[in-house]
Amino acid sequence: MQQQQGRQPELVEGSLPVFVFPTELVFYADEQTSHKQVLTLYNPYEFALKFKVLCTAPNKYTVVDATGAVKPQCCVDIVIRHRDVRPCHYGVYDKFRLQVSEQSQRKALGRKEVTATLRPSAAQEPPSPRPQEEEGRLKVQLADSVFFEQTAFQTESRVVSGGPSLLTVLLGLVCMAALMLPTLGEQESTVPVYLHLSVNKKLVAAYVLGLLTMVILRT
């Protein structure tokens, strides 16, 4: 009886929430910089996760490191490049599926799907969101999607990804700025009192900055 109470409930396949940002990728044919997008996979759990990226149109995209692992309470950037920006692909919706599982298991504990589309130009963006008819058409188009693995493109080096994401750099700058602010209780300072930080807040900023530094060094 005690052994049954001590066991943790086994996760059901497909029941684990997967946290990915963004949930939609938009590529623009006339903007070379938009041909490379970054998906960030977050792992807020106390155990490591391994992931796999699948796609409905693998020949159109290059996924850097389509399989990998995420440490507990960490995140990983997945670089996706559009390889075929011909006009015949304008307006076509593809899907990426991120499957996650525990390191010691094969079954997918959770999955998250991200849509991807190619548009001619950012200047031709519609002024308002897609109408309900377009949303319905999109759901029908993607309802019976077949996903394929991106195994053919896993050999590309992560160095080509261009370094850390913009979000990582911005968080690092915020932490550095926090550490440079006066500590709460300092008298001789021209900085307004409301910008003085407590020692605990500065310790948190230093800890986050250390984590970001490790992430940057690994990219």
TrEMBL record:
Lipid bilayer topology: Multi-pass membrane protein
Compartment annotation: Endoplasmic reticulum membrane; Golgi apparatus membrane
Family matches, as InterPro entries: Ig-like_fold, MOSPD1/3, MSP_dom, PapD-like_sf
Name of a matching Pfam family: Motile_Sperm
Chief location of this protein within or outside the cell: endoplasmic reticulum
SUPFAM superfamilies: PapD-like
Leader sequence residues: none
One GO term describing the cellular component: endoplasmic reticulum membrane
Stretches assigned to the MSP domain: 18-114
Start and end residues of each stretch annotated as Disordered: 115-135
Keywords, alphabetical: Endoplasmic reticulum, Golgi apparatus, Membrane, Transmembrane, Transmembrane helix
Transmembrane regions listed in the UniProt entry: 159-181, 193-217
The protein's role, per its UniProt record: Plays a role in differentiation and/or proliferation of mesenchymal stem cells. Proposed to be involved in epithelial-to-mesenchymal transition (EMT). However, another study suggests that it is not required for EMT or stem cell self-renewal and acts during later stages of differentiation.
Name the record gives this protein: Motile sperm domain-containing protein 1
Organism: Osmerus mordax (Rainbow smelt)
